[in-house]
Automatic annotation (TrEMBL):
GO terms for molecular function: DNA binding; DNA-binding transcription factor activity; zinc ion binding. It holds the Pfam family Fungal_trans. GO terms for biological process: DNA-templated transcription. The keyword Transcription regulation applies. The keyword Disulfide bond does not apply. Residues 151-215 form the Xylanolytic transcriptional activator regulatory domain. Residues 449-468 are annotated as: Disordered. This is Xylanolytic transcriptional activator regulatory domain-containing protein. Keywords: DNA-binding, Nucleus, Transcription, Transcription regulation. It is found in: Nucleus.
Length: 535
């Protein structure tokens, strides 16, 4: 299953790359079908839904330029303006249902391709602020499912241009605004993908701007996003960089606790109704931009918690991490919180792939691993319920996206975990009933093909543990070759189940409780029924 999913993703990336760079093959000429009114609606949708989250454009100056009579000539003479204009249309039309989950489809992809045609021309020897705005807009669009494979190149180019223009030391509002948008995007992406940032935190000398509130509250959400991006940068440098590999376990534990405290302080700065672990829904009257901000901040918070918890477990750090519990507890709670938030995710083409699939999948695999590692633990049943929740979400995602990503197959993880949990519970009950003369022993007798009245009881044994001889002792019958263990008996019936009766050698299946390996789920070979010998 893992190999099939990997091949599907690889094929998807290769096909999208071919479509993106093929000259005009996927560009649908629909300019004649778009009226000026539609274009204005798409631009308004951009500034209503995208601009509050990523405020890197000056709305007044952009609308003024677009409304000029000579704007068409400006597009023909300045490719960077054409690329920016078409990317704004691509972002805005997605909120009118014109986006798609497949590369090469939808009006949004058409506008993105038109921007791509102008992209090489925008990379001149003397970049301007307009060049940075164009690449940043394209990077924002590339977060969705249809074009996520281009995000790394576009974000890296945006960060490079910002550094070339010294935007991190500018005192102009328009320049500092776009720098902090790039900072948030680039720092988040680097932390998620274990990459070194191109932006040096110690060399920044500009203030974050005051922006429009996307959730209609008094809180500055852009500043909160910037602070979280800064925390992600510190976390990567202190704990996941090459430098961090030289720390001792005690030093790592101290740094993990320090980052946890900083993360908790950031969490407390969020309004109570929107804090991670406390959010219950989106207030009435809020649009997609509110969902995007809250989902991004909550998922980013939980991604840091997961990273720190996994590092603590990897380093063998035992005990509570400050006041937040053990690494396993933090891992479990973060995974559950992510799956609880899936009901708030907009299953639309404009939603980022990271929020749409990456974080829910990470949470699902974490809970799957916890169930496999401790199938009879007190949290196993609750974790299975959350796995059922994840299965339902991924099935719904495949339906909404028209199988753009075959995520319904992920429900097999839930099935495997539930079956393993059930088998371990039965095995545990069988082991307990084997040492008792109570009715639980009857279940074992039925499995062995004999009535429970023929089983020796504890009263039939002497003080040395051996069975008392005499006519009252019933003979134990078992299937041929089956090894039977009786409570209180030190010896067992000689023989074992023939290997051929189980379809082949089974030495590689002898896994005890707590020793289960994730790879064993996919390395086990089960022969077809026609190749198995009957009992």
């Amino acid at each position: 299953m893992i190999d099939e999913m990997r091949s599907v993703v690889t094929e998807r990336l290769e096909n999208a790359t071919k479509i993106f760079w093929s000259p005009g093959s996927a560009v649908l000429r629909r300019d004649a079908d778009l009226s000026q009114n539609l274009r204005e609606e798409y631009i308004q949708a951009y500034f209503r839904y995208v601009h509050p989250v990523y405020p890197f454009l000056d709305q007044a100056s952009f609308l003024e330029e677009v409304s000029k009579p000579q704007f068409g000539q400006l597009l023909r003479n300045h490719p960077e303006w054409s690329a920016l204009y078409n990317t704004v249309l691509a972002l805005g039309c997605q909120y009118h249902g014109r986006g798609a989950f497949f590369p090469g489809k939808g009006l949004a992809w058409h506008f993105f391709m038109k921007a791509r045609e102008c992209f090489p021309k925008t990379l001149g020897p003397m970049p301007t602020l307009l060049h940075v705005q164009t690449v940043t807009a394209m990077a924002i669009f590339s977060q969705n499912m249809s074009s996520f494979q281009f995000k790394e190149d576009l974000l890296s180019e945006a960060a490079r241009l910002a550094r070339c223009l010294q935007l991190h030391k500018s005192d102009r509002v328009d320049e500092s605004r776009i720098f902090w948008v790039i900072y948030q995007l680039e720092k988040s992406w680097c932390f998620q993908n274990s990459r070194t940032s191109l932006i040096a935190d110690f060399d920044i000398d500009c203030l974050p701007p005051t922006t429009t509130d996307p959730i209609r509250s008094s809180h500055d959400w852009f500043l909160s996003s910037t602070r979280l991006a800064r925390l992600l940068s510190v976390c990567y440098e202190e704990l996941f960089s090459v430098k961090a590999t030289m720390y001792t376990v005690d030093q790592k534990q101290t740094k993990i606790q320090s980052v946890y405290k900083a993360l908790h302080a950031w969490k407390e700065s969020i309004p109570a109704q929107y804090r991670p672990d406390n959010i219950v829904g989106i207030p009435d009257g809020q649009g997609p931009q509110s969902r995007a901000v809250l989902i991004h901040l909550n998922f980013s918070y939980h991604s840091v918690v997961i990273a720190l918890a996994r590092l603590a477990i990897h380093c063998g750090i035992e005990g509570d991490l400050s006041d937040f519990g053990t690494g396993e507890v933090m891992l479990r709670n973060a995974a559950r919180a992510i799956l609880e938030l899936t009901s708030l995710i907009d299953l639309k083409a404009y939603t980022s792939l990271w929020a749409l699939a990456t974080m829910p999948l990470a949470a699902m695999l974490i809970l799957f691993d916890l169930v496999i590692q401790d199938p009879t633990g007190p949290d196993a049943k609750t974790n299975l319920l959350f796995l059922d929740m994840a299965s339902g979400y991924f099935s719904r995602l495949e339906h909404v996206t028209e199988a753009a990503m075959q995520t319904s197959r992920l429900s097999e993880f839930t099935y495997i975990a539930r079956e393993y949990h059930r088998n371990e519970i039965l095995r545990l009950q069988t082991d307990r009933s084997g040492s008792s003369a109570f009715p639980g022993q009857q279940t074992v007798s039925l499995l062995l093909g004999e009535p429970s009245t023929n089983r020796p009881s504890l009263m039939d044994s002497n003080t040395n543990g051996s069975l008392l001889p005499g006519p009252d002792r019933a003979e134990i019958h078992s299937p041929q070759g089956l090894q039977v263990h009786v409570a209180g008996e030190r010896t067992a019936v000689e023989g074992s189940v023939p290997a051929a009766a189980l379809g082949g050698p089974v030495s590689h299946l002898s896994v005890g409780a707590g020793q289960f390996s994730f790879e064993d789920l996919f390395n086990t070979v089960i022969l077809p029924f026609e190749n198995q010998q009957p009992w």
